[in-house]
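Ticket closed. Logging final result for Elongation factor 4.
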Amino acid sequence: ISQDNIRNFSIIAHIDHGKSTLADRLIEKTGMLTSREMQAQVLDNMDLERERGITIKLKAVRLVYESKDGEKYILNLIDTPGHVDFNYEVSRSLAACEGALLIVDSTQGVEAQTLANVYLALEEDLEIIPVINKIDLPSARTDEVKREIEDVIGIDCEDAPLISAKEGLNIEDVLEAIVNKVPAPTGDPKAPLKALIFDSYYDTYKGVICYIRVVEGTIKAGMEIKMMSTGKTFEVTEVGVNTSKHVVLDELCAGDVGFVTASIKDVKEATVGDTITDKNNPTKEPLSGYKEVVPMVYCGIYPAEGEDFNSVRDALEKLQVNDAALVFEPETSAALGFGFRCGFLGLLHMEIIQERLDREFDLNIIATAPSVIYKIIKNDGKVLEIQNPTDMPPLTEINYMEEPIVKASIMTPTDYVGAIMELCQNKRGTFLNMEYLEEKRVVMHYELPLNEVIYDFFDALKSRTRGYASLDYELKGYEPSNLVKLDILINGESVDAFSLIVHEEKAYERGRTIAERLVDVIPRHQFAIPIQAAVGSKIIARETIRALRKDVLAKCYGGDISRKKKLLEKQKEGKKRMRQIGAVEVPQEAFLTVLKYD
Ligand code: GTP
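Final structure:
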C-alpha cells in the first residue's frame, strides 16, 4: 500500500466521552478482531488504567479499511494519555499523526480539559475531525453541541459524524472522514532515517519495544540505529505493526507507524521524543520537540513492614524499567526506617506508582508528603538542591532559598473567574492576564509556586468550578521565597516523616491541620501527649491527646477466658501496625491520613 493510502490519527476526548468505546468499534469494523476475541477493551489493557478511567500508556494499532472509493487504506490509530502529567507524551504521540478525531459527548458538550489536547493537536498542525457521540441517548443535544464546538474551537461541524459508539451507529462515517480528511503522510523513504519514538515499554522477552513514526527513510531488521539524544547504538532485531498482535514486517518506511525492537535493555535508552537514525547514514538534524523528562515531585516510599524493603526495591526496579520518568534512591527515616526517595512527573504519576505497588506487587507502603526541589543558597555561597525536608541545613547557614514557579493556564467558563482568582491568590499566585476564547470561556494565566500546585490545587480547582476548569502548567524557573521547615513533634520528639518545607505564611495553617488530624488518629495513651508544630525552635501550633487509663480487659464481662485471649490477640495484631515514636505508639494509618492533602 502506498504512502497516499496511509492515515495516521489519534483520538482526543474528555474522560468518559467514549474514546475507548469508539476505538473498539473502529477496530471491530475494520475486521481486525472479532468482538469475542476482543477482550472488552483492547487499547487500555492495564487494569489500573481502566479503573481510573485514564489511559496512561499509549500504543498504536494498525487497521485496514476498504473505503467507499474502493481503495484499501492503512489507518494507524495512536492512543494518547489524557492528563497534564503526561502532556509531553501526548504531544509526542500527536506529533506522530496527521489528524485527530475530537470526540464530544452530545449530552455534555465541550469540556475544558478537552481543549488542552485540542491546542496540543493544533500546535502539531493536525487536521481535527469533530465526532459527536452518544446520540442514542434521549438527552443528546446534537445541534447545540455542534454549535458549541464551532464557537469554542472554531472548527466546522457541518459534516461531523453523529454516532453512537456504544450501539455501533454511523461508525463508517468516522472511517470515511478519516480517509477523506486526514492528509496522507509525506517523507522520502530513500532519505537518511529519521523516526520519532512516541512510546516505549519493556517486554520481558524482547527488551524495550519502541513505538515509532518513520518521518524520513526506511528502517529494517539488521540495520544499525542510533538514538540521537544519547548517541547509543543498537542493531534492529524486528520491525512490525500491531494489529491484534505483533506482526513482524520487512521494513517500515516514511509515513509508517509501527514498532521496533533492538535488544534495548532499559526504556531510558529509548525515551519518548527521541529521534532514531541510521548509524551508518545519519540524518543531520534530530526531530524537534525532544525533551528530557525530569521529576517534578518527590516523596519517600517506605514498606509498612520493614522486612519488605527488598521487595519494594524489586518492585520499583520493575516499574522503572517501563517508566523512564520514575527515579528512586534509598533513604532512611528515623520514624519509618529504610525506604526510598522517589521522583515523579506529577501527583497523578505519583499516585499511580503508589497504587501499582499496592495492587500489582501486593505491597503495603507508607508514603511521605510530596515535595518539590528547593534551592538553598548558603551563606558561604554554595547552592544546595534539596527535595527532602530533612536535608535542610540549619537556618543559621542559609542565606536565602528559592522555589520552583510554574506558568499555569486555567481554562474556565467565565462564571468561575472570581472563584479561581480567589483560589490562586490563596495559593500565592501572581495574575498575569486573561484571554477570552469566546464569549463565555476564558483562559487565565498565572504564575504559581509548584509546591502549592502539588498540595491540593487541582482538587480545589475542580470543586470550585464543578469540574469545568482545566489546568495545564509548565516549569518557569526558580524564584526567591520565604520558605521554612515545618516540624511536627509528638511528645516532644520531632518526626522526620512529617516534616515539610512550606512558605512562611502557610506554616501555621498547615501545622495546625496536621496537629488536629494527629489528635484524631493517635489513640490515647496512659499519659497526655502533646502534638506540636514548630518552625525552628518556635512552636506555632499545639494540640493535646488527653491521657486515658485504658484497661482493655475491663470490657470482658464474666470470666470468659477465650474471649479475653481473643482481645489480647487482637491488641497484639494492632500493635504490629504501630510505629514507636519515643514512648508513643502511632498507628501506621496516621502517616497516611495526615499527609493526605485533601
Ligand atoms: P476514558 O478511557 O476514561 O478516557 O474514557 P473514554 O473516553 O475512553 O470513554 P469510554 O469509551 O470508556 O466510555 C465511557 C462510558 O460511556 C462507558 O460507560 C461507555 O459505555 C459509554 N458510552 C460510550 N459511547 C457511548 C454511546 O455512544 N452511547 C452511550 N449511551 N454510551 C456510550
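Residues 34-44, 48-58 have pLDDT under 50 and may be disordered. No further action required.
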